[in-house]
Amino acid sequence: MRQFLQQVQRVVVKVGTSSLIHPNGMINLASIDELAFVLTDLKNQGKEVILVSSGAVGVGMHQLNLAKRPTTIPEQQAVAAVGQAALMNIYNQRFTTYSQQTGQILLTRDVIEFPESRQNVINTLEQLLKMGIIPIINENDTVAVDELDHLTKFGDNDQLSAIVTQLTQADLLIMLSDIDGFYSANPMTNPDAKLYAHVPRITETILAQAGGKGSQFGTGGMSSKLKAAQRIFEMQGAMILANGKQPKIIFDILQGAEIGTLFKEEQ
Ligand code: ADP
Known about the structure:
It is a single chain. The chain is an alpha/beta fold. It has one domain (3-263): Carbamate kinase, CATH 3.40.1160.10. It contains ten helices and eight strands. Helix 5 links the parallel strand 3 and strand 4 (134-139). Helix 2 (29-44) packs across helix 4 (73-97), helix 3 (56-63) crosses helix 4 (73-97) and helix 7 (158-167) runs parallel beside helix 9. The longest helix is centred in the N-terminal third of the chain and has 25 residues, at 73-97. Residues 16-18, 177-179, 182-183, 185-188, 209-211, 214-215, 218-222 line the site of adenosine-5'-diphosphate.
């Protein structure tokens, strides 16, 4: 089932805020550094790598010394504006250590609805990859606001990472979270929850097993990851949800090791 992973040529990696920020609100430099190392090495192996990174609000909170995530949309946008620049600065420092160039792309999810913007995004991404540059993508938080659901959805890059995977026709989306994969129930509240190694389709049962709330700094929660997985199924693609605590597991994932949950149709 996982043999195809060794042939993966183009990969999108999505990291959640919980992989970038310690629970106490400080920046997780070890994790960010390891991520830069791993992604650069994959590129050096000849693969094409795209990073979709959350964390702008988390890093902004750190920069501005805020203990609590602000609740209004303009406040969150302001914090994200500060945090996005700071986050890119940290990424650039780390990637530069490994002599890897990165480029920042800020997108809104609706790019796919406008053929011209869609094509421009594809052109930019393809050009960056051709130049050996790792694109680092985030949602353009100043523009993109899900008015009705901003408290839970703001800054959630799960859908965006699936959209980027579609736009670039990538072979695989690796979604790194604060949890080992998709379980039969939320393991934070249910100790009997079992980890799925493989989910071949999104069913009502699977949807019902995604518990409501996400982590303290994370925003999307599991149902948002399932929505992303649904997009991947629609393109007959593959997605792996795994723990981002140690980004080096990406090497093992691409060797085909049974890590995390694979979302892919049975062949
Ligand atoms: P991140 O910010 O790392 O992307 P989220 O906080 O958005 O992560 O989502 C991960 C969280 O989803 C987990 O910490 C867990 O509490 C919750 N969750 C709810 N239901 C499930 C489930 N069935 N399997 C795994 N995690 C679940």
